[in-house]
């Protein structure tokens, strides 16, 4: 509850800081604000609180998801030093929008009432629509914003329809109230409930870009400025899966037999489309968009095989995925900016040619992040995949397991293309320069990935 | 048939007809006018459901303010020229199939569902008035009500950010 209040207030404070002549303060202030919100998040650790007449519920799981979201936001903001260098940029609005969107993300993570979920989704989405179009001079950015906005508004409409039907069936918006309705009417659940579940799922799956609701993802991720793509693919996805988990594991667990088949089919479709299409990409950023679709598929396995291990697996996987994605986008941002071709920034695979020789640190950071995304041992991504696959094995859904392993071998192909380009191809001779603070963030993300890969037990027993 | 049922069916018929006109009309102005008619009919439904305040707000905000904006925008744009049809036949077929399946599913669900009958004994005409709504908003739903202001602020900041003129390049 406190981080929501703090971040709303800090967002307004940042807007006023935009009036200052000097822009130097904005970045450190934003970082301090996020850290303050993170600190207050932990005040509720170990306790379960219900706030404001069943509106919000904080427990350890919600706190962990909030931590992942705030940590990702911290790193993305820390990588945003280039705003300060642009002479005429007014970055206060960007930072304020990022903080406001975090309010929405935390609401999605700790909602207890579906109205809170809806308002949270809207706050996060509206901020993202705007940030997608923040590069006003680029037609691709404009296209991304418009596409995301139109499709996102439509998906929100479907989700709202689903929530209305759930209310019609159960007479309540409260997550645990729906649960008790499902249990008391175990044999005669209203059909409206099923309809509501499906429509709510469609809306939420759109937000986490699962197939067949993924069509916006490549264009939007590609057109959005890289910094905000990193934010979008980590914060929005983590919050979306936290919301899906809460609603599926609390409200609808009584009708598991109804929705698991649908979700299993969508999981396989997502894995297939994400991984196979990523192989054909020439742009690294587009490849990352398809890779984010495929990671949504892996996370969906955990939900399909809903069990006692699911929450731990989801937390670990989201953390591993966020760390790797942010360091990958961090490297891409520096490299693409310094190796421009005739079309402006170069975001293709060939931008990375010979990177390991000119800047071994960036090469290493990128290599670790690619290995982690591919799920190679000794990185966090491996244990994330391992835990997710364990949930499926525990539930006895082996065919989905076989399919997912098959798809992650496809994944190895396109992640290794980057590593091959960096280590075995000849590239431009001029070295790539990195600002010191930027370097520390990338190093920290890489070290965390490796530490979690060596000692996955660190997060055990927290939820 | 009770008189209220006749009102309901007439209203529903007009609503559906005008909603279909919104989609099928060739002229965008006709579309907008049909949309206004739809909003008025929906307000009628709200009144039937004892939500008088919502009905009034719907007319003021949607049929009034938003539709005027809509009309302005359409008149600013030059929509005279005939745009080429950009959808292929395959997309149209897919859309028809998907939409049709959704419609059939919903029809079946709504036919099969037994909704509890209205209890005329505890009818209270004041339920949908401002007073009751205000008490709800400022007690049970205080938190989402306040956080909706963050949503509006985000939309406002975003609109200003996208709308203002900026010189110079940006490096993201």
UniProtKB/TrEMBL annotation, chain A:
Keywords: Cell membrane, Membrane, NAD, Quinone, Translocase, Transmembrane, Transmembrane helix, Transport. Residues 113-408 form the NADH:quinone oxidoreductase/Mrp antiporter transmembrane domain. It is a multi-pass membrane protein. GO terms for molecular function: NADH dehydrogenase (quinone) (non-electrogenic) activity; NADH dehydrogenase (ubiquinone) activity; quinone binding. It catalyses: a quinone + NADH + 5 H(+)(in) = a quinol + NAD(+) + 4 H(+)(out). Its main location: membrane. The chain crosses the membrane at residues 24-42, 62-80, 92-109, 115-133, 145-167, 187-206, 227-252, 258-280, 287-308, 314-335, 361-384, 396-416, 437-459. Its EC number is 7.1.1.-. One of its GO terms (cellular component) is endomembrane system. InterPro entries: NADH-Q_OxRdtase_suN/2, ND/Mrp_TM. GO terms for biological process: ATP synthesis coupled electron transport. Coiled coil: none annotated. PANTHER family: NADH DEHYDROGENASE (PTHR22773). NDH-1 shuttles electrons from NADH, via FMN and iron-sulfur (Fe-S) centers, to quinones in the respiratory chain. The immediate electron acceptor for the enzyme in this species is believed to be a menaquinone. Couples the redox reaction to proton translocation (for every two electrons transferred, four hydrogen ions are translocated across the cytoplasmic membrane), and thus conserves the redox energy in a proton gradient. Belongs to the complex I subunit 2 family. This is NADH-quinone oxidoreductase subunit N. It comes from Arsenicibacter rosenii.
UniProtKB/TrEMBL annotation, chain B:
One of its GO terms (cellular component) is plasma membrane. The chain crosses the membrane at residues 6-25, 32-49, 55-78, 90-113, 141-162. It comes from the Bacteria. It is a multi-pass membrane protein. It comes from Arsenicibacter rosenii. It catalyses: a quinone + NADH + 5 H(+)(in) = a quinol + NAD(+) + 4 H(+)(out). NDH-1 shuttles electrons from NADH, via FMN and iron-sulfur (Fe-S) centers, to quinones in the respiratory chain. Couples the redox reaction to proton translocation (for every two electrons transferred, four hydrogen ions are translocated across the cytoplasmic membrane), and thus conserves the redox energy in a proton gradient. Its EC number is 7.1.1.-. This is NADH-quinone oxidoreductase subunit J. It is found in: Cell membrane. Belongs to the complex I subunit 6 family. Keywords: Cell membrane, Membrane, NAD, Quinone, Transmembrane, Transmembrane helix. One of its GO terms (molecular function) is quinone binding. Its main location: membrane.
């Amino acid at each position: 509850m406190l981080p929501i209040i703090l971040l709303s207030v800090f967002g307004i404070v940042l807007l006023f800081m935009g009036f200052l002549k000097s822009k130097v303060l904005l970045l450190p202030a934003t970082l301090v604000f996020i850290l303050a919100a993170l600190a207050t998040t932990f005040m509720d650790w170990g306790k379960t609180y219900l706030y404001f007449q069943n509106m919000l519920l904080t427990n350890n799981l919600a706190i962990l998801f909030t931590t992942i979201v705030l940590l990702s936001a911290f790193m993305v903001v820390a990588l945003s030093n280039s705003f300060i260098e642009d002479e005429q940029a007014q970055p206060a609005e960007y930072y304020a929008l990022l903080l406001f969107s975090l309010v929405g993300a935390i609401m999605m993570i700790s909602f207890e009432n579906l109205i809170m979920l809806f308002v949270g989704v809207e706050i996060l989405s509206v901020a993202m629509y705007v940030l997608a179009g923040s590069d006003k001079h680029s037609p691709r950015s404009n296209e991304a914003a418009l596409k995301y906005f139109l499709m996102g508004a439509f998906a929100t409409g479907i989700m709202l329809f689903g929530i209305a039907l759930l209310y019609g069936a159960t007479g309540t918006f409260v997550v645990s109230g729906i649960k008790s309705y499902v249990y008391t009417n175990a044999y005669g659940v209203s059909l409206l409930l099923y309809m509501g579940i499906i429509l709510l799922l469609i809306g939420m799956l759109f937000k986490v870009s699962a197939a067949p609701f993924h069509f916006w993802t490549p264009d939007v991720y590609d057109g959005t400025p890289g910094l905000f793509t990193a934010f979008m693919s980590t914060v929005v996805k983590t919050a979306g899966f936290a919301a899906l988990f809460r609603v599926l594991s609390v409200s609808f667990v009584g009708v598991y037999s109804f929705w698991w088949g649908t979700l299993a089919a969508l999981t396989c479709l997502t894995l297939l489309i994400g991984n196979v299409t990523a192989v054909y990409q020439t742009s690294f950023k587009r490849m990352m968009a398809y890779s984010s679709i495929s990671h949504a598929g892996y996370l969906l396995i955990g939900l399909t095989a809903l069990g006692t291990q699911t929450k731990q697996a989801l937390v670990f996987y989201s953390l591993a995925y966020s760390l790797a994605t942010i360091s990958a986008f961090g490297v891409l941002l520096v490299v693409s900016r310094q190796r421009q071709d005739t079309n402006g920034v170069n975001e293709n695979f060939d931008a990375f040619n010979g990177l390991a020789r000119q800047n071994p640190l960036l090469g290493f950071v990128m290599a670790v992040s690619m290995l982690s995304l591919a799920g190679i041992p000794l990185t966090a991504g491996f244990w994330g995949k391992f835990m997710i696959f364990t949930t499926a094995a525990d539930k006895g859904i082996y065919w989905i397991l076989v399919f997912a392993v098959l798809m992650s071998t496809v994944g190895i192909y396109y992640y290794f293309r980057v590593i091959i380009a960096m280590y075995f191809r000849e590239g431009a001779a001029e070295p790539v320069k990195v600002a010191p603070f930027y370097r520390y963030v990338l190093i920290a993300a890489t070290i965390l990935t490796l530490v979690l890969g060596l000692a996955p037990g660190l997060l055990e027993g927290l939820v | 048939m009770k008189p209220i049922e006749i009102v309901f069916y007439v209203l529903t018929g007009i609503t559906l007809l005008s909603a279909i006109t919104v989609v099928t009309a060739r002229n965008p102005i006709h579309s907008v006018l049909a949309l206004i008619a739809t909003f008025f009919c929906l307000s009628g439904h709200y009144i039937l459901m004892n939500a008088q305040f919502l009905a009034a707000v719907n007319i003021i905000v949607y049929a009034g303010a938003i539709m005027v904006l809509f009309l302005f925008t359409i008149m600013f744009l030059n929509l005279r020229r005939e745009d080429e049809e950009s959808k292929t036949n395959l997309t149209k077929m897919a859309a028809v199939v998907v939409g049709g399946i959704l419609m059939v599913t919903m029809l079946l669900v709504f036919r099969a569902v037994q909704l509890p009958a209205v209890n005329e004994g505890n009818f209270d005409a004041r339920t949908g008035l401002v007073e009751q709504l205000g008490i709800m908003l400022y007690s049970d739903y205080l938190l989402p009500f306040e956080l909706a202001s963050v949503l509006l602020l985000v939309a406002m900041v975003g609109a200003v950010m996208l709308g203002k003129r900026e010189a110079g390049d940006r490096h993201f």
